[in-house]
Amino acid sequence: MLRGFFYLTRFSMKAAAACLSVSLVAGIAFAGEADPALAIRVNQLGFMPLAHKVAVVSASGATAFSIVRAGTSKVVYSGKLSAAATWEASGESVQLADFSAFQRTGDYQVRVTGLPDSPRFGVRTDQYAQLNQSALRYYYLNRASIAVSKQFAGKYARAAGHPDDRVIVHASAATATRPEGTVIASPKGWYDAGDYNKYIVNSGISTYTLLAAYEHFPDYYRKQSSNIPESGDAVPDVLNEAMWNLAWMLTMQDEDGGVYHKLTNKLFDGMVMPEQGSVERYVVQKTTAATLDFAAVMATASRIYRQYDSAFPGFSARALKSAERAWQWAQANPGVLYRQPADVKTGEYADRNVSDELAWAAAELYITTKNDSYYQAMRLPQVSTVPSWSDVGSLAWISLSQHRSNLTATADRQLIATHIDQLASTLLDRTEKSAYNVAMQTADFVWGSNAVALNQAMMLIQGYRLNARREYLDAAQSLFDYVLGRNAINRSFVTGYGSMQPMHPHHRISQADGIVEPAPGMLIGGPTALQIDARECKVPYPSKVPAKSYLDDVCSYTTTEVAINWNAPLVYVSGALQVLTR
Ligand SMILES: [Ca+2]
Ligand SMILES: [Ca+2]
After folding, report:
1. Is residue 276 domain-resident?
2. In total, how many domains does the chain have?
């Protein structure tokens, strides 16, 4: 339960309620109800021509399907539906329409006699490039301490908020050299999620995932221009964007090497624009988790930005030195867990198991320094897991696998490969047994289920990059399709993409800016049966079934919030599929 507890919550403050809800839901038997209008579900954005292409069709007794030109009766492909099977997470009986062999570019719909046609989708060679750019631009639009200008944001331009140039050291973080009330400067960084606070732990996996996207696909990201203020300089935009948060993270390291857990208001800001938010902000308690996440990200950044030293003079060396000082602090303080002070009510990100953070930091320091003592300090669990903010062990395997041809003799290359392949193989096995042809199972419908899907996809892509098993790439595609509409409610979960889009994200800027359409490229949390926010909603959830429990309403923070750690795998996976299925 304890492990599930940390997967369940974006913050642990609502953990008790979360545990209760899940145990209640587990006892419910799900009845399948067919909504004819939602009968054919497909990735509403579409596909690359060479991609695995599958639609999910409500079982109706039909045995065949066709692909038609959008809005016409011109059949361009015909195929057989698979036998009906039930997906436990939604309780539906469905059939699969596999049209992977169809590779012609254009706009299409899936047709099954007796059912409404599927939403429209495109097939194009650059089908995911724009979504990838939008997903990255989410970070620009959520930068703290800077105005977002019309030139780069159009109607989403806004004033600067939260300068964080005078941040107060909270009592929980006080030392002899920085007593309570000391003022430090800690500007920049990204707003974490629907709120305006900045948390090192969640910044860890988010920043790493963007850096990994670049490290794995540098040619793609070097050519990408995402219309941010730094577009057109000598640095890939994804690295400009990551630097906005890295610059903030560096300021969060105390003089002794330890790293503050978060920079926060005492209470959440209201649903206001950033410039109306509180300027009284605090750095709170140094923790082992924050310090190790910081060490891992800085060690990673040190090696990646080495080639951009002329753009960021001295950064690479400073990042490594900061990482090593953080590591040393964590060695001396191995079990300092986060304890929320009584006067602070914002998100906790309180991780009770920091062995995975230690392993990840050790792995990144080893890869960057080639110092064997770091490799020997890694003690990773035997089974690798799908990453989340509190479970970062597999990030170590991702980086070790990426660099396996360039490690010292101490590294066990076979072990590294085995860990990557075992997790991909487990996820593939689930995919092949799934009526929906996705790795997502009932237990995956936690708070932020869409990020679970995309982190699963990211791990499948690591398996594919390691050993070129095409099934791994196809299983990753299926999970990407899932978040873009091939799901139990026939909805895209990315703002601005698909024919049925989220319109009311739990996100202060989206709520307060007076613009109907949320900025494109934000992944919302997605279905979960937690419903701990139901009493705050004027309309009821339509279903208690995990894969259908979703409300496109700002009240539903468990299903419609956005977060930096959720958008990061959207960037990674959309970019990877754009590159790998071309
Ligand atoms: Ca640039
Ligand atoms: Ca952990």
Report:
1. yes
2. 1
Q: How far is the CA of 244 from the centre of ligand 1 (A)?
A: 12
pLDDT tens digits along 488-523 = 999 999 999 999 999 999 999 999 999 999 999 999
> What is the dihedral angle through the alpha carbons of 203, 208, 214, 217, rounded to the nearest 10 degrees?
-130
Q: Is 107 within 8 Å of 121 (Cβ atoms)?
A: yes
Residue 418 lies inside a defined structural domain of this protein: no
pTM, two decimals, is 0.95
Choose the catalytic residue: 164, 506, 507, 533: 506
User: pLDDT tens digits, residue range 455-476?
Assistant: 999 999 999 999 999 999 999 9
Task: Report the CATH number at residue 231.
Answer: 1.50.10.10
- What's at 408, amino acid-wise? T
561 is catalytic: yes
Say whether 162 is catalytic. Answer: no
Catalytic residue among 195, 241, 357, 553: 195
Residue 368 domain boundaries: 146-381
From the CA of 241, the nearest ligand is 1
The full DSSP string for 173-206 is: G--SSS-TT-EE-----B--SSSS-EEHHHHHHH
Q: Decide if 504 is catalytic.
A: no
